[in-house]
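Batch manifest, entry 17 of 40.
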Amino acid sequence: MQKPFRLSVLIAALGLAATSLTSVAHAQNIRIAMVIPTTGALTQYGDMVKEGASTAVEMVNAAGGIQGKKIELVPVDDACEPKQGPVAANRVVNAKIGYVIGPVCSGAAIAAAPIYNNEGVVVVTPSATSPALTDGKKFHYIFRTIGRDDQQGPSAAKFIIEKAKPKKVAVVHDKQSYGQGIATSVRDALKKAGIDVVLFEGINAGDSDYSAVITKLKSNGVDFVYYGGYHPEMGLLLRQAGEQGLKVRMMGPEGVGNPEVNAIAGNAVEGMLVTLPADFAANPKNAAVVKAFQDKKRNPSGAFQLTAYAAVQVLLDSIKAVGDSPAKVADHLHKNSFETALGTVGWNAQGDLKAFDFQVFEWHKDGSKTAAAK
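Output type: structure tokens
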């Protein structure tokens, strides 16, 4: 087990312009690419990861860096789009950066992972949950600091079965790697428990009218809807269901747990259920970390802030232990466990966490969340 950095202040927020990437001054620093969506519909998730990674880097730099070197975060935009994942990966490789926090979204991460792995770039994603990222791939350089959908899905299903106790369930998804994957996991767990899943339906992400699927929900008499996907579509489903008189409880994965869902759904968001990483910010052991976030007016209790913080922790702890060598860092991550803001973390052979705590929360119209009771 590695002792953690006691990560307290200042990020060099660098663009990916060629001049900044090749500067002689930067050669003395340790660079980490932060592959996030800075454009597109899912930039809020990139902001969450940026807050977590920035806070960790600031604290290390304020304490003197690593062996006299400062840490630089280099933002790289992939828009959370699969087709942009390889483009972003090649930019990182061409810039000779050996470490990545991200990619944020599963589709982009799956598309980019072979490039990173083949080029020896260590990737630690704090948010990509699809099993397809790692299953059967034998990647040596790809890791997560978040659980997989087949850990999250059963947590959601367990709550639905034991607490919500619906009679007829519909499972809806956005036809994408992340959304359909988590939806399938939930559907299968519900069916195994004898819950009547009367509809398993895909919608098109980015559409503005989901009247057709809402009509199907009504005609099938569902009393609970699970949605696999992201907040823009969940917000519209909630709002349009309310407008069409469909009064059912809706639930989604961490991809819907974004304050932007309130702006889309309005009051209809009240009572939405969402599976999220446990509230690590409430752990007294993280008091100093939480204060560092709050001092910068950042939110430590969002879906990905502390998983991103932990991703930086394990990278920098490894660099401190074995040097600035991606190959040695990857080996070190596979062979060791680490004390982080998430608690003790360690990985199996394919880079997935051995355990992760997903919990169910109830979302409120003021943007807050509370532990769900039923």
